[in-house]
What we know:
Layout: H1 8-37, E1 38-39, E2 42-43, H2 46-52, H3 55-88, E3 89-90, H4 94-101, H5 109-120, H6 125-130, H7 138-166, H8 170-178, H9 183-194, H10 196-212, H11 215-220, H12 226-232, H13 242-266, E4 283-284, H14 287-316, E5 317-319, E6 328-329, H15 332-337, H16 341-374, H17 380-388, H18 395-405, H19 420-444, H20 449-456, H21 461-472, H22 474-489, H23 493-498, H24 507-515, H25 522-548
Parallel strand pairs: 3-4
Antiparallel strand pairs: 1-2, 5-6
Helix pairs in contact: 1-13, 1-16, 1-18, 3-7, 3-10, 5-7, 5-14, 5-25, 7-10, 8-9, 10-13, 12-13, 13-18, 14-25, 16-19, 16-22, 16-24, 19-22, 20-21, 22-25, 24-25
Amino acid sequence: MKPRAFTPGTVAMLAGLAAFFGLFLVYPVVWMLRGAFVVDGRFTLEFFAMAFRSPLVVGALTNSFLIGALVTIFTTLLALPLAHLFTRYDFPCKTLLSALLLAPMILPPFVGAIGMRQFFGTFGSVNLLFGLNIDWLGGGGFWGVVIMLTLNLYPIMFLNVSAAMANVDPTLREAAENMGAPPWRVFRTVTLPLIVPGCFAGAILVFIWAFTDLGTPLIFGLSRVVSVQIFDRVTDVGTNPMGYVLVCVVLLLTVALFVVSKRLVGAKRYEMLARGHTAGSERRLSGWRAALVLAGIGAVVAMALVPHASVVLQSLADRWFFTVLPSEMSFDHYMEVFAHPLTVSSVRNSLFYSSLSAGVDLVLGVMIAYLLTRRKIPGASVLDAMAMLPLALPGLVLAFGYVGGFNWKLDWLNPRDNPTVLLVVAYSVRRLPYIVRSAYAGFQQTSITLEEASLNLGASAWRTLRKITIPLVMANLVAGTVLTFSYAMLEVSDSLILAMREKFYPITKAIYSLMGRIEPNAPSVASALGVLGMLLLAASLFAASKVLGKKMGQLFRAG
Length: 559
């Protein structure tokens, strides 16, 4: 039973959360809307009219929309059969293959793009190996971006679709099969209609991510996309309204997608009267069927690991020019990561930013989860929505809003002078949903009777939270904090936009900067830095999975 009374502590937490979300989430969005729609105190649409008369803007919007649509289609085509196999059948090496399918989550797509460019460029390894002259990255890098994002984002779709399929009552499928329906018809008429909410949830996240991804198009040199056009307008954010217009288009599209999906999904009913027992519902595959499944999943895993392999090879390459594989290899570039002034400072900066952001997320996550599960407060749904909003709000939008909205005389809050505070806040806001979900699950699984006993014995609410509740949910908090820290280390959009001066560069901005230099070993050093970040994220995910177990997948689902 949630207490109704407002204690001073509850009021203080609500006031603090309102101030945080108001300043760092609502204010930047309002500022961008004002910059796009208001001139001299009057509402106007003239900037939008100018934007849609520009061939450059129209071309960028078209390319971004096509990238988002194609990546969503391709990830769905990959995820549906994979989720079907993993939820319906049991086969050898299933656990190992399930882990390998999620491997792309440990590599930011723009880091993988560095090695993919070496593999699939006009004079890359694939063409040299087979004696071809094919532009695999065609359209100025368009197809390279689509392929790279597909390989990186299909785990998000896979997790959402798998969760939806796992919730389908197996007796419904069995009833259809007993009536003579073939497997494809059972899937089309029973399973597929019931997993629509999960498919929509994953599709929206994938589309928005692909539509707004910044790092991958930059590495592939594809400038005619919305994200790069916004990035190019950061420097003149105070004088050119076109950046605000593009950001508002992204923001409005994001909101429209969620509203439409709610209407489409909410217009139908998907619930089942009761859920049958799933124990023993998986069918064991053996013989040629198991071999065929293993071959298919292995092919997907092999494709997904190509970017990882390419980055590792690039990080070891002393010389890689007009050869299928590097002609000279060494570990010197890893040593250089710890000697190069830019990489050394970027690692130090990222550790600092990420540690602070993880601490901020921990405090905010505990407060939000506590209020939602232990206090019956008005507007709880609003608080929950604000905490989850960063899942739908692209980092590109938020970072651009910080640049425009915090152009103040306060040096410590102006990214042009010192982006530390805003980088920490941006990382925190972007990853807050992870720790909120983790803490929320912990609070839900902990009986409130222990806290009531503590309160009845005279302990204060704060002492009860500190001595009773927090220790009981510590595993969830540790796992959530590890995830927020590791993903903040490799955050892309916020880092590329907010870190404007070299001494403040985090790891991802240092990688991008190295890729733009003419130094002969710069790509290899950048790749070595990316590999170290990848290893850090892999170790963090492994540690979190050990603490949370199978529940870790819940953190990456949209529903």
